[in-house]
Amino acid sequence: MSNVSFEQGDLRKSALSVKRVAIMAVFIALSAVGALIKIPSPVGTIGLDSAPGFFSAIAFGSVEGAVIIALGHMLTAAVTGFPLTIPIHIFIALQMALWALSFRWVNKKLGLIAAVIAGIVLNGVVSSFTMMLMGGFGAVLGVMPFLIIGSAINLIIAAAAYRVIKASKLI
User: Fold this and answer.
1) Domain layout of the chain by residue ranges
2) pLDDT band at 15 (very low <50, low <70, confident <90, very high)
3) Which CATH number describes the domain made up of 2-167?
4) pTM of the model
5) What is the enclosing helix (H) or strand (E) of 40?
6) Long-range contacts for 25-30 (Cβ within 8 Å, ≥24 apart)?
7) Which of 160, 159, 131 is nearest to 145 (CA)?
8) Which residues pair with 47 in a beta bridge?
9) Hey, how many other C-beta atoms are within 10 angstroms of the C-beta on 27?
10) What integer is the mean pLDDT of 80-105?
11) Under the phi-then-psi rule, with left for phi > 0, alpha for psi from -120 to 50, and beta for the rest, what region is 117?
12) DSSP notation for 98-117
């Protein structure tokens, strides 16, 4: 008898895993579409790829959001030919994953508006300093306005979608 319930428990866990992977796949595909929509900038890798990751972080969980946003950045970078080099883009993808985790945490602690503001500061301002590795402080200042605008657009899309879908009781 205990073997039967153990097997059912395993089946339930695997079904949740399949659902989790399917949700992530859909949002990674949305990131790929967003990767094709660019915000003109000096680096060419600022796009609408992170909105699905930010949304997923608050709607589905930390792991989902982090994976989706990191892969979304790598897709954007791949579309543009990794202009900052693959190692720098991997570093940025890891930053993006951390920003998605932070977005979720701030949303839980302080609310959605505070989370959007924190996300814009982290992704728009803090991430700009990655350019210090490529071109010094001038490169940081050169990319920062574009990154702030791109971050704001992505985060506002994610927050608005979350509010609408949460109000509809779909999540």
Assistant:
1) 2-167
2) low
3) 1.10.1760.20
4) 0.87
5) none
6) 27/52, 27/53, 27/55, 27/56, 27/64, 27/68, 28/52, 28/67, 28/68, 28/71, 28/72, 28/75
7) 131
8) 38
9) 24
10) 95
11) alpha
12) HHHHHHHHHHHHH-HHHHHH
84: its two tokens: 């900052």
What six digits make up the tokens of 148?
Answer: 């702030």
Q: Which residues partner with 38 through β-bridges?
A: 47
Amino acid at 154: N
| Tokens encoding 38 | 């660019």
pLDDT confidence tier of residue 16, bands split at 50, 70 and 90: low
Confidence of residue 29 (pLDDT cuts 50, 70, 90): very high
The vertex-145 CA angle with 53 and 49, nearest 5°, equals: 20
Q: Which pLDDT belongs to residue 17? A: 83
Tokens at 129, concatenated = 């300093």
